[in-house]
Design a protein that fits this description.
This protein is about 45% helix and about 15% strand. By secondary structure, it is an alpha/beta fold. The protein is elongated and about 65 Å long.
């Protein structure tokens, strides 16, 4: 039995699918990984290289595919499709588990012939680009694609309630399954100790407020809204720390300078110690315009942080208004400022909200996700024997 894990970029496999690979191996599958190890990753080149070595040490073969993240990079898509199709035919996989919009389309296209010989395809949608409130162009482009390729999708896994309900109603897969996210290790996160030196090295005092965001520096992650909201509060004791890399680094620092916050905005780049930063933060801000079920938000909840986040699909599965935090329209700077100010009132209030989040996020622990994936992989295994 041979399984292939496919995604646009290696960082998606690294961040969301390591446990799935281990589970498949435990069930007797020989597992390979095919994705773009060279371009478009949200983690550093060093981390991608290390991850590839770790896979090889786990007896997982890796294959480079030039899958682009840009929608209309057709030349790279064609190259990736041809290479993937050849790989699937040569290796005779019995199971393919694909991720990401472009990666999943290429995988489903490439395995049409092999599906006639018993190959099964699982697609995990980490957040459809068509969702309630999405731009019309998203519905015009992405929805028809998913509808067309539904017939090549034996099992569609959705990770938030909105996607699950829509996928079932519109029959976007032969079988649609709900999984509570991709899983986090709640107890492990709880056990991480505070390291106050992290604050000290950035010049953040004990009485200062550290607002933390995690995510790529791009338009979708929308860090500008939080930065503008903090500037409206006109307080000099607030520091804004962002863990993530991306194209908007210069623009964000320019904004910080224009608002007199240059010394209090800290862009840390890609980090492997995000949980440690969550442990020394006071508030987690998550202003994304689009998410599936965000891992960083779940991690912040497990770390015991109160949250101010955007009122969007996925986030609303995790945060209830006034319970573990507050919800705002993604671009509503004034409301972000208002809700952040509510959390500045007392450390006791922040701690109480953080406890609520720690309790709620238990439902999204990786043990719950593993139960779902065991059933999914088990059903495939049963049909193949």
């Amino acid at each position: 039995m041979k399984a292939l894990m496919v995604a646009s970029v290696a960082s998606m496999i690294d961040q969301f699918n390591r446990e799935n690979i281990a589970l498949l191996q435990k069930m007797g599958y020989e597992v390979d990984v095919a994705c773009n190890f060279e371009v478009g990753n949200t983690s550093s080149k060093e981390r991608v290289d290390t991850f590839r070595q770790e896979l090889q040490q786990q007896n997982v073969k890796t294959f480079q595919l030039p899958i682009p993240r840009k929608m209309f990079a057709f030349s790279d898509m064609i190259k990736a499709y041809k290479k993937l199709k050849k790989l699937i035919e040569e290796e005779q996989y019995t199971l393919i588990h694909c991720h990401s919009p472009i990666g999943s389309v290429l995988a489903r296209l490439a395995c049409r012939k092999q599906r006639k010989h018993g190959l099964k395809l699982i697609y995990t949608a980490h957040g459809f680009h068509f969702f309630t409130g999405a731009p019309k162009k998203n519905w015009l482009i992405f929805y028809p694609i998913e509808k067309i390729f539904a017939k090549y999708t034996d099992i569609l896994i959705t990770i938030c309630t909105e996607d699950f309900e829509r996928a079932k109603r519109r029959k976007l897969g032969r079988k649609v399954v709900y999984s509570p996210g991709v899983g986090i290790n709640v107890e492990q996160i709880k056990k991480v100790e505070k390291n106050e030196e992290k604050r000290q090295k950035l010049g953040i005092g004990k009485k200062d407020i550290l607002i933390l965001s995690v995510g790529e520096l791009n338009q979708n992650k929308n860090h500008k809204t939080v930065l503008q909201a903090i500037s409206q509060l006109e307080r000099t004791d607030i520091h804004y720390v962002i863990c993530g890399q991306g194209a908007l680094e210069v623009e964000l620092m320019k904004m910080a300078k224009e608002n007199g916050m240059e010394s209090r905005v800290h862009l840390l780049g890609f980090r492997t110690d995000v949980i440690e930063w969550m442990k020394v933060a006071d508030i987690f801000a998550f202003p994304s315009c689009r998410e599936g079920l965000p891992v960083s938000l779940m991690e912040a909840m497990a770390a015991g942080l109160p949250v101010v986040c955007s009122r969007i699909r996925g986030n609303v599965d995790l945060i209830e208004e006034g319970e573990g935090g507050y919800l705002c329209k993604p671009l509503d700077t004034a409301n972000f400022a208002k809700n952040l100010s509510k959390l500045l009132v007392s450390s006791e209030q922040r701690e109480a909200m953080g406890k609520i989040n720690q309790n709620k996020v238990q439902r999204f622990d990786n043990s719950k996700v593993s139960e779902v994936m065991k059933k999914v992989y088990g059903n495939v295994l049963t049909t193949q024997r």
